[in-house]
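thread: overnight batch results

M.L. [08:02]
morning all. the overnight job finished for the chain we discussed friday. pasting input first so we're all looking at the same thing
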Amino acid sequence: MKKNNLLLILVTVFIIGCSTTKPEGNRQAVTHPEAAWGWHLGAQAYTFNRFTFTEALEKIDSAGLRYVEAYPQQVIGGGIEEKMDYNMSEDSKKYIKQMLKKKNIVLEAYGVIKTKEDSDWEKVFAFAKSMGVKTITCEPEARLLDHISALCDRYDIRAAIHNHPDPSYYWSPEIVLASINGRSKRMGAAADIGHWVRSGLDPVACLKKLEGRIYHLHFKDLNEKGNKKAHDVHWGTGVNNVPGVIAELKRQHFKGMIAAEYEYNWDNNMADVKKSVENFRSIVKGN
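M.L. [08:03]
and the structure it wrote out:
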């Protein structure tokens, strides 16, 4: 009789354990449907450039995101006046790692990097390695592309070439492709779909041209095409064909970070980011 009671208790505990853990997994799949595609949906901290990096992490967390792309010019915060510069002190690195762990946010990428001195590129890669960064988004001078390629292989870190609008050097996918051709497989594109639209380009067509070499995205939706002054709107409500972009990323089996970069309503745009993320996840589930 005692054995039967013990067996009943063990079975009951097992059933309760399953019922408490299974819904969490289901809830994660529902709330973060992009994870099933290997997409790390996060934010470029530049979205919150009116605030410190510490404050940006708070906002990213509140928007339901778990990944961040840091940029060098942002003040760290939390009583630290240093910036997110690759020359920061070891104490600042320690603080940042503690904050990331506390918020359960991954520092996935770092950029967009342009350097004044050629020798700074080694420092950028060394810093990225020390912080666990997987991808450096950058716009190096063309003469330094071989050097960047070698650093990618030496540090086992990806360099994703970012496109600002025309007449920026890397504005078109053709130029990015030519820049990475014949170089390290760790070199690819940081596709900024908003800047493509500002340049009058079709983001879906641009993604097709870069197939297989897209390592990172800056995600936007804009109110107007072909206008450098076009501003961000909630994803799926503008001219960027967000459903088409998502469908194309699925078709390509893209894996990597998709960084929200909402460059509008600067002082109070966290709700805009949150709404955009909600729209994105709804389209991912229905697309």
